[in-house]
Every structure is written in structure tokens, then in C-alpha cells.
Amino acid sequence: xxxxxxxxxxxxxxxxxxxxxxxxxxxxxxxxxxxxxxxxxxxxxxxxxxxxxxxxxxxxxxxxxxxxxxxxxxxxxxxxxxxxxxxxxxxxxxxxxxxxxxxxxxxxxxxxxxxxxxxxxxxxxxxxxxxxxxxxxxxxxxxxxxxxxxxxxxxxxxxxxxxxxxxxxxxxxxxxxxxxxxxxxxxxxxxxxxxxxxxxxxxxxxxxxxxxxxxxxxxxxxxxxxxxxxxxxxxxxxxxxxxxxxxxxxxxxxxxxxxxxxxxxxxxxxxxxxxxxxxxxxxxxxxxxxxxxxxxx
Amino acid sequence: xxxxxxxxxxxxxxxxxxxxxxxxxxxxxxxxxxxxxxxxxxxxxxxxxxxxxxxxxxxxxxxxxxxxxxxxxxxxxxxxxxxxxxxxxxxxxxxxxxxxxxxxxxxxxxxxxxxxxxxxxxxxxxxxxxxxxxxxxxxxxxxxxxxxxxxxxxxxxxxxxxxxxxxxxxxxxxxxxxxxxxxxxxxxxxxxxxxxxxxxxxxxxxxxxxxxxxxxxxxxxxxxxxxxxxxxxx
Lengths: 297, 234
Ligand SMILES: Nc1ncnc2c1ncn2[C@@H]1O[C@H](COP(=O)(O)OP(=O)(O)O)[C@@H](O)[C@H]1O
Ligand SMILES: [Mg+2]
What we know:
- The complex is a heterodimer of chains A (297) and B (234).
- Chain A has helices at 3-32, 39-56, 61-84, 92-112, 127-130, 142-164, 166-176, 178-183, 188-213, 223-236, 241-261, 269-283, and strands at 121-122, 132-135, 138-141, 216-217.
- By secondary structure, chain A is mainly alpha-helical.
- Chain A has one domain (2-283): ABC transporter involved in vitamin B12 uptake, BtuC (Orthogonal Bundle).
- The longest helix of chain A has 30 residues, at 3-32.
- Chain B has 234 residues and is of the alpha/beta class.
- Chain B has two domains: 1-77 and 175-234, Rossmann fold; 78-152, no CATH class.
- Chain B has a six-stranded mixed β-sheet with strand order 6-7-8-3-9-10, with helices on both faces.
- Classes of the chains: A mainly alpha (297), B alpha/beta (234).
- Chain A binds chain B through residues 166, 169-170, 172-173, 176-177, 179-188, and chain B through 48, 50, 69-71, 74-75, 79-80, 82, 86, 88-91, 95, 98-104, 147, 151.
């Protein structure tokens, strides 16, 4: 494969991971109008759940991964219930500060947990990710093949959920008008719980796929992917689901191409990403697909 | 039937409803008239569980609605076409209507009600795939009413459905309400437009600064000095 195609595929793969994580930021922002800073730590936690179920409790990889996704999704729901819901009518700044607090709490929980701790741990990569497949004349490693495919399948499932199901309709409705959604007979607390469930589940899938590609675990590994995915959500238009996906793919491609074509600047990779963030916030805060969002009361 | 007794609502220090009482018997059309700021919307919001009254009682068929959340009240049989229509601009007309039926699980009944709404407002049927935000004001009001009907309510609450509409659209809207009345449905119609409301209603209440100042049958209210002076402009 030519270098360029290889880099495109890398960018696409990284982008699909950003897209998975960016959805959670955008869903929550769309409804509650705040940036859930703990989302990156949710992403990190999925890898540790997998680590526990696979290494410590010795479950088969697929089962451990399913449990990790389910538990991470459940954590998202619980965090909303205990930390964010009581602040539903509080000023936005209280939510921001609480989200930071939750983020610190999750990171530090890993540091004190037995078998985890502050030091780097190995990520359990399954055999099908390391295996080399031969497609025609092209030899391709499992991660290169499966990571973008699984991510894309999850994104398609999300689009189906949001645009073709009853609860998806309520999720879109609640993002424009919480009160009127309640008048439709929808229990808004349940819709919001559902939103956290879905956003956290996607972040968990992202976390596991991320681990397959970069197989190490560390308590603060969610910070940078979280910030980059947040950038992707802003680029696509925060609050816009399709925008978050588009932003994820664009940012992943841009980042990889930046490093590939300007290798001497590769140390400035994050400066590049956050430069993009700052430019968007300054000149196009509504992103590519977003519309100006009203501040909700 | 819906009973409101001695309802008091405060917004901070503002005493918006000061002991409002009225009732909506089954099968009747009751109108609540009042000028801007009289407390009409507040009354409907209290009934739907969107604001919490400080005092008073709200019962539907003898069951108290106080302290229940809006989606529970919808399930008990009330639905509201809110002031300002509040349709979901990014959802299609069909999605808006289906959201109105969110609490229901009888898909046959939902399909039947959808056909009924389309027969009531044929323009909505022509625009099913269009986004709600692209509709004209009159069509948005039809959508708001149709969406509330999709809940299959025992009592339909309407907050100023004629607000901001051209006279021909008001007439069209009220022809639809007349059809609902002829079918024996129960309506609570909140209006500033007393002329339109009293042409349809069986019974009316007049609200002024949070109090009921007059009530009576629609013909009697039409003849009363208070209503003639303040609301009919004669
Ligand atoms: N959210 C609110 N906060 C403070 N005051 C309010 C609020 N909503 C309504 N009011 C006040 O309550 C009174 C009744 O308002 P409302 O019920 O909207 O009247 P109407 O629907 O008859 O025009 C008015 O004086 C209005 O200013
Ligand atoms: Mg009003």
C-alpha cells in the first residue's frame, strides 16, 4: 500500500475513534448545555474494566469487553443521576465545576484501586486484533481492519437509534425544548439517562478500540483523547450528532496528515489540534454543521 | 372532569394566581378569558405540572394532579397545545405528531388518531416530511393542536390558539375545534380573543390579575357588560 493511502487509513481510523467519543460531548451539550469534562475519564475507565475482567477475573475477551461497555455506560448514567441531575436548575458554572470534580474523582479512583494504580498497565489486546489478514495481495493487521469497521458500525447504529426510533426522537426533541418534550408524555429524566447511557457506551467502545491500537493503560489516558474529541465536536458543531462524526473524521485525518507531511513538527501535534479548536471558537464557534444554540433557561 | 379549587401560584414575590377555581365537565367546551398577564398560561402550566402551586387543588376525575410530573399528567389524560406553539423545528411534521403520542403503546389507536388529525388539518398531511420549522404560523398552530390530540387526551388544553393568526386562519382553526366539540370531546380553551372563544364555548370564566371576576354560560357572558366592554370592544 502506498504511504499516502496508509496514512489516510490511519487518519480515518483515528478519526472514527474521535467520532465515537465526540458523540458523548455533543449529546450532553445539546441537552444540558455544558461540557461534560468527565467524559474522557469515562473513556479511560472502559479500558480498566476490560483489564479487570480479562486479567484479574479471567473472563473471555469478548465477554470482558461487553461487560466493560455495559459497566462504563452504567457509570455514565449514575454520574448524571448523582452529580448532574441535582444541578439541573443551577447555573451552568456549577455543572462545569462538578464535571471537573467527577473527572478528578474517576482518575484518582484508578490510582487507588488494587491492581490498577498510578503506573502504566498493559491493555489486553485480543488475538483477532493482532492477527495479520491477507486480502488479495495486501497484508493488513487486525487493528487496521477492525477498529475503523467496528467504530463505523457503532456510529451507524447510533444514527439509526437517533433518527429512526421513538426514544431517538425524544432525544432530538429534548435538545431543542426540554419542557415541551415533557408535555409530549416523555419522562425527561429517563430520556436524559438514556442519553448518558448511549454517549458513555460509545466512549467505552472507543476506549477499548483505542486500547487495541495503543495497548497501554494509564489513569490519565482519557485527557488528551477527550480534549481532541471535544475539539472534533466543536469543529462539527457542538450539539450536532452528524457534526460530531464529521468533526471526528476530519480531525483524525488532519492530525495524521499533519504528522505525516510535517514530521519535524510532529511534537506540535496537540498544538495543531488545539490551534484548530481555538480558530473554530474564534471564527466559527457554531462549527461546520451547527446552528447558533440558544442559552436555555 | 377537571376541577380547579382555590389555586395560588407565586413567581418569587409575584402572586400570579390568587385563588382561581373553575371546572371543566366532561364533553363540554370551557373557555378561560383574560387580558395579557391575567394568569391564563400560569393556570394551564399549573394543571400540567410545569409550575407548582403554593395552595389549592387540581383533580381529574377525582384524582389529584398536584405533585405529579408533566409526563404522568399526560398519561392520566390531559394534553396541552402550549402558547407560542412550541413545535420542534428540526423534526418533521410526522415526527412532531408521533412525539405527541409518546406515552401511548396502542399502535392501532395512534394510527387512527394520525388519520383523524390529517382529516382535521389536511395541510399537515401534505407536509408530513417537511421540517416543522419550515411551516407557516398557521400550520405550526395546526401542528401544535394535532400533536396534542395525538396523546388521545380526555381533555385537550389550548393556550391562545388564535394568537397571531390571520382571521381566515382563526376561522379555519375554530372550524376544527367545532368538529372536536361535535364529536363530544372536552376542551379547555384559553383565549384573549373572547369573540372567537365565546362563539364555540359552552361556559366561560373571566380571569383578571390572577382572579376569576366573572363566569357564566357563553351566551350570558356575551351579553354581560364586563365582557362587552373589556373583551368585545362594544
Ligand atoms: N416565569 C415567570 N416568572 C415571573 N413572572 C411570571 C412568569 N410567568 C408569568 N409571570 C407573571 O405572571 C403573571 C401571569 O402571567 P401569564 O400566566 O403568562 O398570563 P397570561 O397567559 O394570561 O398572559 C404576569 O404578571 C406575568 O408577568
Ligand atoms: Mg399566556
